[in-house]
TrEMBL record:
A UniProt-annotated Pfam family: ABC_tran
Keyword Zinc appears in the UniProt entry: no
Name of the protein in its database record: ABC transporter ATP-binding protein
Gene3D superfamilies in the cross-refs: ABC transporter type 1, transmembrane domain, P-loop containing nucleotide triphosphate hydrolases
Domain ABC transporter: 328-565
Source organism of the structure: Streptomyces hyaluromycini
Keyword presence, rRNA-binding: no
Length: 565
């Protein structure tokens, strides 16, 4: 499923089309089951007329045997049909989850804009499940149509007035059920929006729990979640009320319809138009119709919720990319020269900057917004509003974003660690304890972290690295970036949570490990800037000064204020 312009209807159609064979198989087996269900009251009527009324024991045993065989067929057809339907629903939901995850992880970005991570998780789980369930609802709807059609034919053969009542009354019931599902659809969409918002706030608060405790802001955080949760609860209750009203009214209409059939059948029996067995069959068929008609009420509710969820999934899948996708491949031999020309974005105001290949360049800023904008440009999280960024003379907009990020790795200071071992976080593709990993750990001074853990590098760090201190997490993150070994490495404030002695060791280790490869360190740390071959000061959104750390510290007052104050 692509990420072009999509509507909720497109998502539903794609989901059903993808499971077409299973839905067709389940529907066919279900129709067989409905045929058998409808035959049961007919056969009972035959038993009454031919065996019970005539007191024929032989015929009674014969028809009972036929009923037994019929019930065996009913059992297996229902079991196999329901299995096909459930599998189709689950696989459709699984495919939708994969589609949402692929879109969220798309190198072009954009799906996460204005959405919390918990909200995206809700779309990928609950909404995908509801849309997948439409396959089962569609199959059940076909079952119900088959049941009503068979019942109508049987009633027509028994009594033309009863058959006409079913044929004419059922479309009216379906139309009324569709009208009654509209409020449920609107309220279901609002319910999912509020639930996703609450999930997003909860995930956001849990991720920042340690910070909240440090600030003593737990009560304010709990109050924020309580307000969001109450809004979600109110939306859920409104949707539940709409569903109960819809279900109740449909059941009332269905009950009235069944009562009408029973009343007409009774009148026909009284005036001799129906035999006793035919009356039993007619009443049995009328009662059987209750099942398909109730199924229609359930199908309408499922479709209403599925349409609402499909619209939310469509919004994510068709989200506008944050950057345009180039299709040129990054050359195998990347020299690593970066050039910015007239770049305007966020705090950057026409920046002209050259980063020579194979050198360690430090970039200090007077405004943190400049650092964030620069990192966004270099990592292609956003394209400049004006100007261009080039790698070895090729504009980044012409390069494939995924291949580009393998060549230019931007390691943010707030990147995430994953649940698993420390080595698994440094070497994502495996747990190899090779010489390069050891060198990366040593360069980031993370080998000291390894020695402090009970099981060394095999120790689990917990979700988000919560079992590590802030400084330990920073060192592991830097080791991961170094171990990746990209041609161009951009790191942002990798030592803000470590002491001065450790910071000095990391600075020397970083310089030695990246010797001969392009490295950009965006920081105001004197220790890191002092080992850079060249330092650039971004002041007021432009390049304010260039030189070595020692030169700028001696001659440039703004630099001294930004770095040494």
């Amino acid at each position: 499923m692509g990420s072009g312009e999509l509507s909720g209807r497109d998502v539903l159609a794609s989901s059903v089309k993808g499971q077409g064979r299973r839905v067709a198989l389940g529907a066919a087996l279900g129709c067989v089951h409905q045929l058998g269900e409808a035959l049961v009251p007919v056969l009972i009527g035959v038993v009454v007329d031919q065996a019970v009324a005539g007191r024929d024991a032989g015929r009674l045993m014969l028809w009972l045997a036929v009923l037994a065989v019929l019930y065996v067929c009913l059992s297996w057809s229902f079991r196999l049909g329901a299995r096909a339907g459930e599998r189709g629903a689950e696989e459709a939901a699984h495919e939708l989850r994969l589609a949402v995850v692929r879109r969220v992880l798309d190198p072009r970005g954009g799906a996460e804009a204005d959405r919390l991570s918990g909200e995206l998780a809700n779309v990928a789980t609950e909404d995908a499940k509801r849309v997948g369930a439409v396959n089962m609802a569609l199959m059940s709807g076909i079952w119900a149509v088959a049941g009503i059609a068979v019942s109508a034919v049987a009633l027509l053969l028994t009594s033309v007035p009863l058959g006409l009542i079913v044929l004419l009354g059922t479309p009216v019931l379906l139309w009324l059920g569709h009208l009654l599902s509209k409020p449920l659809e609107r309220r279901s969409e609002a319910e999912q929006d509020r639930a996703a918002g609450a999930a997003g706030v909860a995930a956001d608060l849990v991720a920042g729990l340690r910070v909240l405790k440090g600030l003593g802001a737990q009560r304010a955080a709990v109050e924020r979640y309580r307000r969001t949760s109450q809004v979600s609860l109110a939306a859920t209750l409104r949707a539940a009320r709409a569903e109960s009203w819809q279900t109740g009214l449909v059941l009332a209409l269905t009950g009235g319809f069944i009562a009408l059939i029973a009343w007409v059948g009774g009148r026909l029996a009284l005036d001799g138009s129906l035999t006793l067995g035919q009356l039993v069959s007619a009443v049995g068929l009328a009662l059987f119709l209750l099942g398909p008609l109730e199924t229609f009420a359930w199908v309408n509710a499922e479709l209403a919720q599925g349409r609402a969820s499909a619209a939310r999934i469509a919004e994510v899948l068709s989200a506008r990319p944050a950057v345009t996708g180039g299709d040129e491949l990054v050359p195998d031999a990347v020299r690593g020269g970066l050039r910015l020309r007239g770049v305007r974005l966020g705090g950057l105001d026409g920046v002209d900057l050259d980063v020579p290949a194979g050198r360690l360049t430090g970039i200090a800023v007077t405004d943190p917004a400049c650092a964030e904008a620069l990192l966004s440009c270099l990592g292609r999280e956003a394209d400049p509003e004006a100007g261009s960024v080039e790698l070895d003379g090729v504009p980044l907009t012409r390069l494939d974003p995924a291949r580009l990020r393998a060549a230019v790795l931007v390691a943010a200071h707030d990147a995430a660690l994953f649940d698993g071992s420390l080595t698994g976080n440094v070497v994502p593709a495996g747990t190899a304890d090779d010489a390069l990993t050891a060198r990366a750990l040593a360069a980031a001074d993370a080998d000291e972290v390894v020695r402090s853990l009970p099981h060394g590098a095999a120790t689990g760090v917990g979700e988000g690295g919560r079992s590590l201190s802030g400084g330990q997490r920073q060192r592991v993150l830097l080791a991961r970036a170094l171990r990746a070994g990209p041609p161009v490495l951009v790191v942002h404030d990798p030592t803000t949570a470590v002491d001065a002695v450790t910071e000095a060791r990391i600075a020397e280790g970083l310089r030695e490990f990246r010797q001969g490869r392009t490295t950009v360190v965006v920081t105001n740390s004197p220790a890191l800037l002092s080992v850079a071959d060249r330092v650039v000061l971004l002041d007021g959104g432009r390049v304010g000064a260039e030189g070595t750390h020692a030169e700028l510290a001696r001659t440039h007052e703004t630099y001294r204020t930004a770095v040494l104050a």
